[in-house]
Amino acid sequence: MADLDATDAPATRDPASKTQHIDVCLTPAVEYRKRPGFERYDFVNQALPELALDDVELATSLCGKELRAPLMIAPMTGGVARAHELNLRLARAAQHFGLAMGVGSQRVALEDAERAPFFRVRTVAPDILLFANFGAAQLARGWGVEHACRAVDMIEADALYLHFNPVQEAAQGGDVDFSDVAARVRELCTGMRARGVPVFAREVGFGISADAARVLIEAGVSGIDCAGAGGTSWAKVEALCAKSERRRRMGAAFGEWGIPTADAIRAVRSVSQRIPLIATGGLRSGLDLAKAIALGADVGAMARPMLVAANGGDEQLAGFVADVLDELRIAMFAVGAADLDALRGTRQLRDVSHCDVLPAR
Ligand SMILES: Cc1cc2nc3c(=O)[nH]c(=O)nc-3n(C[C@H](O)[C@H](O)[C@H](O)COP(=O)(O)O)c2cc1C
After folding, report:
1. What's the CATH code, domain 30-350?
2. Where exactly are the structural domains of the chain?
């Protein structure tokens, strides 16, 4: 590695970077050119679905908690006033629609207790399934059960997300020691299981492979978020936030790196049919959500689309979520799937990647 100068230090450690991430992620420049893979699949229309649209049931459960729909607000932010305001808006929507939600990495608040109040959302969302969050890179620095308990207690969370982001860390010049990480994950999972807190492993948007899923399941995670490529590219985010030209180039070089989300779902499911599976990365509609579930996910999550809608206010966010759920409901109706078990097991999803598609008029 070349020597780093002062401007080469990662921006992420600074709480001000939280607002910079928000601003950058509100622009389409952070999106992959690569697609998430859902476009390779089509549902086979059922002209006789043999059910009424109103009979379609979206309810499910995760970590022992009821969800009114299989949709999650993916972890994004916290730790500064603006991030808190957005998280409160997102949490109000989660409470209203009965969705799950995660907060962004709590590292800043675990290192500086004054940041903790800016992660709390329970006042407006007492009932939601809520995930705490910090990075697996911290395990090599000695973080473990104690930090995990503090993260969970800080926001009264039901579960913990441990995020894996080696490419993002390397591109930004951050924490790049992922050695012995599986053993440390095993220790963390054992400790948290004894305290009744499920640990879910997640990528941030480069995808979980079959090999990674196997290691994580053997280490004892309670669930996986395969967060794949095709939506927000975290290498592009880091390029756009970089303080030095060198870091900008590094982020740009890996801008298209990653496993498309549809492939990541199938990869995890090839290892385990039973592990609870959340799919994030490039879900942009209720139809994408329906395809993610038909491919094997239990719940689909969205980050950037939720952020953009939340930035427009409570009403815009509620309208967006309502549309996503209606699209999911209509897709299930039109394939004759009365509930999520039927959608997950459907034979009505076809790979159409070999078909010619007429260009849009
Ligand atoms: C503004 C913003 C901040 C994010 N911060 C985090 C984070 O702190 N921890 C994490 O696990 N993922 C974080 N993510 C990643 C998302 O949870 C998600 O995996 C990724 O953006 C892909 O989903 P999308 O295509 O729907 O945006 C963040 C995403 C956004 C848009």
Report:
1. 3.20.20.70
2. 30-350
